[in-house]
Amino acid sequence: MWAESGDPVILEKIKKRMTPSQAIEGAAMAKEAGIEVLQSFIFGLGGRYRSKEHIVATTKILNEMQPEQIAPMALAIQPGTELEREVQAGEFVLPTQMQLLEEEKYLLENMNFNTVYWGDHGNNMIQMRGMFPDNKAFFLKHVNEAIVNNPSAKENIIQTFSW
């Protein structure tokens, strides 16, 4: 389950029909029923201009939910979607690869619960998975290395692919 973002502005923009409080309530209900919660969300969904708001709100909601597993993935523009049309029309400006890395770094630095981190989606700039916070230092080391050493992170574009 998930709403792709904890930012209500983004949730409305993507027509998710779910508020952050509804997502929190749904996760609590699942846990109460004995169901483990896996939350997925999308790095970069705020685009170039709502990147910070997106990751701060998403991290806040994750900290409230404390899902047993999380699965972050980088934004991929799917052909034929409304988002693809918005990108082509200049209405949605894609985030940079640096912004994707900064979002992942913020998340890792600010999560405060135990979870399985499934950050190994093919579109992610760094594929990482393991227990969190046990592997927090390891994950942050790789994100920080990519920020410093990955030449594509310095480019002003995102390079992910539709699936």
Radius of gyration: 15 Å
Strands of the largest sheet, in order across it? 1-2-3-4
Distance between the termini: 20 Å
Number of helices: 6
**What is the averaged pLDDT score?**
92
- The ordered string of helix (H) and strand (E) elements is HHEHEHHEEH
What percent strand? 5-15%
Please give the largest β-sheet. Answer: 4 strands, mixed
Classify the helix fraction into a percent range. Answer: 40-55%
Helix/strand/pairing class, anyone?
alpha/beta
Query: Which segments are poorly predicted (pLDDT under 50) over 5 or more consecutive residues?
Result: none
Given the C-alpha coordinates, what overall shape results? globular
Number of extended strands? 4
Q: If you had to describe this structure to a student in words, what would you say it looks like?
A:
The protein is α/β, with parallel strands linked by helices. It contains six helices and four strands, in the order H-H-E-H-E-H-H-E-E-H. Strands 1-2-3-4 form a four-stranded mixed β-sheet. Strand 3 and strand 4 form a beta hairpin. Helix 2 runs parallel beside helix 3, helix 3 runs parallel beside helix 5 and helix 5 runs antiparallel to helix 6.
Tell me the layout of helices and strands.
Elements: H1 8-13, H2 20-32, E1 38-43, H3 51-65, E2 69-74, H4 82-88, H5 97-110, E3 115-119, E4 128-132, H6 136-149
Parallel strand pairs: 1-2, 2-3
Antiparallel strand pairs: 3-4
Helix pairs in contact: 2-3, 3-5, 5-6
